[in-house]
Amino acid sequence: MSLDSPLKPVDQLRTWAEIDLGALAKNARACSRVAGKNCKLLAVIKADGYGHGICEIAAALAPLPEVFGFGVANVTEAQAIVGAIDEGQPVLILGPVLPCEREAVVAGGFSAELSNADEAAAFAKVAATLGRKASVHVTVDTGMGRMGAMPDEVAALVAAVRASQWLQLDGIATHFPSADEDAEFTREQIGEFGRLTDEFEEPTLIHAANSAGVLAFSERLGFANLVRPGLALYGVAPVSENCDALTPVLSLKSRVTLVRDLPTGHSISYGRTFITERPTTVATVGIGYGDGYPRSLSGSGADVLIAGRRCPLLGRVTMDQIMVDVSCLETRAKPGDEVVLIGGEIVATEIAEKAGTIAWEILTGITQRVVRVYR
Question: Quick one: which of 67, 174, 280, 296 has the fewest CB in 10 Å?
Answer without folding.
Answer: 296
